[in-house]
Amino acid sequence: MILDKHEKGSTLRIAVLASGRGSNFEALCKGDTGNGRISLLLTDNENADVLRKASELGVEGIYLSPGRYRTKFGEAEEMEWTRLLKDRGIELVCLAGLMRIIKGSILEEYEGRIMNIHPALLPSFPGLHAQKQALDHGVRITGCTVHFVDAGIDTGPIILQKAVHVKDDDTVETLSSRILEQEHIAYSEAVKLYCGGTLPASQGHIFKRE
Ligand code: GAR
User: Fold this and answer.
1) Rg of the chain (C-alpha set)
2) What burial letters (b/e) apply to 103-123, b meaning 16+ CB within 10 Å?
3) pLDDT (tens digit, 9 = 90+) per residue, 81-111?
4) Residue percentage of the chain with pLDDT more than 90
5) Domain map (residue ranges) of the chain
6) What is the whole-number distance in angstroms between the Cα of residue 129 and the centre of ligand 1?
7) Cα–Cα distance between 147 and 96 in angstroms, integer?
8) Cα 22 to middle of ligand 1, angstroms
9) Domain 12-208, CATH
10) Which mutation among 16, 17, 23, 122 tests ligand 1's pocket best, with the greatest number of atoms within 8 A of CB?
11) Residue 190 pLDDT > 90
12) Gap from CA of 128 to ligand 1 centroid (Å)
């Protein structure tokens, strides 16, 4: 399966989907993403800080209702999100702290073109509170993962990872903050790789074409 469906060299329109603080969104906007351009921010939380950040950074930011569920989209609402992404000509979708599972029309339309960032070295510690899971398990190394999204929870093909050493006196806060620094580097790198057209996937693994 070849996941890069855009033409090499052309500008690629990217949407970030986020629910909260938006530091990864900001890092993507300010980072080197090659010929990828963050042109849309979509959120399921009308009070999210990320909406304010979008306005400060001059990126179109839109709140769209996700429907009545807490951790997934309503079917009709997910179709609205998909329609908006298509209307804006979005070619790559980056999840950055979206606290909702994508299973319906967004995945159908964009499978192989949706990335997520997760604050652990997958497949360890998927789901919520990954940094606390790492501390509770006593691992000495954790980190972050950028991966393509499939129908599972944090199970899609891995694009790249950054390792972070756990210190003896780490708390969830101190560890999360060091992982977050690496997230900000990793996400732009992964997007740049994708936009450079060097990300073929084979049997669920991503490797860099030389
Ligand atoms: C990040 O640490 C991201 O890895 C995590 O939410 C945070 C969002 O921060 N995502 C998940 O845990 C998804 N399973 P941000 O809003 O500052 O980018």
Assistant:
1) 16
2) bbbbbebbbbbbbbbbbbbbe
3) 999 999 999 999 999 999 999 989 999 999 9
4) 86
5) 12-208
6) 10
7) 12
8) 8
9) 3.40.50.170
10) 23
11) yes
12) 10
